[in-house]
Write the structure tokens for this entry.
Amino acid sequence: MTAQLLRLYRTELRLFGREPQALVFVFGFPIITVLVLGGVFGTDTDDSGFEYINPQHFYTAAYFGVVLCAIAVIMLPVHLAGYRERGVLRRFDTSSFPRWAVPAVLVASGVTFAVLGFAALLVTAQLAFGLPEIDDPVRTGIGLVVGTLAFVSLGVAIGSLLPTARAAQGIGLMLFFPMFLLAGGGPPPEALSDTMRTIADWLPLTHVIRAVQEPWLGLGTGGDHLAVTTGVLAASTAVWAWRTSRITRAA
Amino acid sequence: MTSIATRTSTPTADRPVLECIGLSKTYGGHLAVDDVNLEVSAGEIYGILGANGAGKTTSVECAQGLRRPDRGTIRVLGLDPVADKARLRGRVGSQLQQANLPDRLKVREAVTLFADDRVQARRVMDEWELETIAGTPFAGLSGGQRQRLFLALALLNDPEIVFLDELTQGLDPAARSEVWALIERVRDRGTTVVLVTHFMNEAEALCDRVAVMRSGRVVDLDTPAGLIERHSEGVRVRFGGSPDDVDWVVDVPLVRSARHDRREIVAVGPSPMIAHLGAELVARNRVPDEIRVAQPSLEEALLTLLDPPDPDPRPVGPSPFDPTALAVAAATPTTAGGPIR
């Protein structure tokens, strides 16, 4: 069983590596955008819009969430919904793989790509701006781990619900850009209107970003945000586990 | 009109490899499978024949534990396909309709993924002649190559029974012929094959027995030869003659009907009629220059019964076959319940 799952894991990593769209959104987009925004807003620590934090550091800490957002709403849903649409899941159903193998391996693959995306972001930020010191490594680490699991699980849950890759792509892009712009990856939070901030408070990405950003930059513990993120993890895991456990949609 | 040679022998076994009793499945008010009984013996190629929407795919999906039937009992190798799914893994092979592989997955990667180990993967690559296309992504394979790969994957673990659902749909005649040869190879390995098809010539060429389904019910079950015998007009013998010859031809033993058609006499009847007709021609010193004998095919035999359609067919099961019940409604949805996942 373990060897079988490892084979599936390696295969999925290869297949994701052959998906240009996934690579662009997970690796290309966050790096290019953080470089652009870091360049635009510079290093001024007097700006209340960035909570008196060096904007380059503010964005570096936030863009871990953007990597996760790309995995959760674009990479994984398109992949899994495409599997359903094309009958790949039917093939796995009739093979010796257990039903939970595909979603479980997609979670593992998503985590792997998240780690690779983080690494690419760290190297880029270090070379371009220098990395900010971590104020509370334990809470930052917990935020990163829970946030990663929550968003990867969310991606599998979304993919388990959507019928086609095209639907997943459309919905994913529709979710990605507003989330990215409002949750901390776009304009400074203070530049957002009250309505936008209210919307941002309801976005899971806001909480994932804050759960990492606050303890990293010394802005707070991120405890409330971590609680919300944990809720996202529990809910999304329940969704894909429920979808996987059903013998048939009609049953 | 020479038919494809058919096997008429029925393999015997101690117990059925697949047994469905009173199988029924409804999708939102639509009765997709209605009281279906199937019994597949070890080592045979068992065909399930019917038009799209006849309930073939739903029946085999229930048999594989992919759908839960509303009523009925199913036993595959003596086990319940839902409750004992884990125990049946590896003992049952399958190529379902619309079950594909990721476009960018290469042939060798696919075999390695589903095989137990590298040794098995290498053996299967050799056995099914996949080495030449080992580096080709799934999306780049021809129809015949895809089916060859699917068969190889379905048989990876040397299953005791394999379900093949519409394996040749969309293939050109050459590729279809190639796949037929592959299916015969599967049977020659001793694997029991349940072949779902709506191609009558495919069922006739490959199957030991054929269950004919219509509107969710099994309306007849026999060997292809038996179905032909029961539902065709019979053998057609043509030879040169005048309209007056019809008078004596109809009196030849076993001749069911005779008519004059474009300077020829056409006599119809069961195969032994040929001997009687030949003897009568010799006795009358009327041996013609040319005698043509047309054997009926399964397609001809069943098509005769499919027209006109009967909106309310009666199930046959153990009772005598009702020929009017076999009209097949065309172009209805193939999988009434939609995709499984």
Summary: Chain A has ten helices and no strands. The interface with chain B takes residues 3, 7-8, 11, 14-15, 18-19, 82-84, 86-91, 93-96, 98, 247-251 of chain A (CB under 8 Å). Residues 191 and 229 of chain A are 25 Å apart (CA to CA). Chain A has one domain: 2-245.
